[in-house]
Amino acid sequence: MSIFSKLFGKGERVERSQALSEEDYLELDSDVEKKNRSKVLVKPFVIREFGDIKDAIDSLREGYTITLINIKPLKDKDLVELKRTISKLKKVCDAIEGDIAGFGDDWIVATPSFAEVFRAMNARPANVPQERNQVRDEDF
Predict the structure, then answer these.
(1) Sequence-distant (≥ 6) Cβ neighbours of residue 27 within 8 angstroms
(2) Nearest CA to 128 among 105, 107, 96?
(3) Domain definitions of the chain by residue range
(4) d(Cα 69, Cα 56) in Å, to the nearest integer?
(5) DSSP character for 132?
């Protein structure tokens, strides 16, 4: 006899103690999944070719991993593949509502939706020298 027929029998009244016995249900341990996924993981990846990006993308889609991606080997090898790889990463970050940013010349950070990359308002690329306050003739 199924549990539904015990609970909602056809015209017969069944006591609760008879309807649900220990054999009729299975207790699930819901803390197991929470323990495994409660921490954020920061994971480095090295991209040597376009196919290497799959592991980083899979980690991003899981939603618990911030990826640090070293693009130097691919940058030294093939700039067209590098553009293709970065384009793919941008599309994935947009799809999962994450964030992506480059830092330095050889690294990219990509985050899932719960995190965002800080960007300073007046940040400038590292290779651009800071303008000095020089006195010009037009200032007088």
Answers:
(1) none
(2) 105
(3) 37-113
(4) 8
(5) P
Could you tell me the two tokens for 118?
Answer: 């800080």
The pTM score is 0.60
85 φ, ψ to 5°? -65, -45
Higher pLDDT, 17 or 54: 54
User: Which amino acid type is present at position 75?
Assistant: K
| Rama region for 63: left / alpha / beta (φ>0; ψ in -120 to 50; rest) | left
In tens, the pLDDT along 56-94 reads 999 999 989 999 999 999 999 999 999 999 999 999 999
The SS3 assignment for 50 reads helix
In contact, 6 and 14? CB cutoff 8 Å: yes
Q: Class of the 37-113 domain?
A: alpha beta
Q: How far apart are CA 17 and CA 34, in angstroms?
A: 32
8 A C-beta contact, residue 85 and residue 137: no
What confidence score (pLDDT) does residue 133 get? Answer: 46
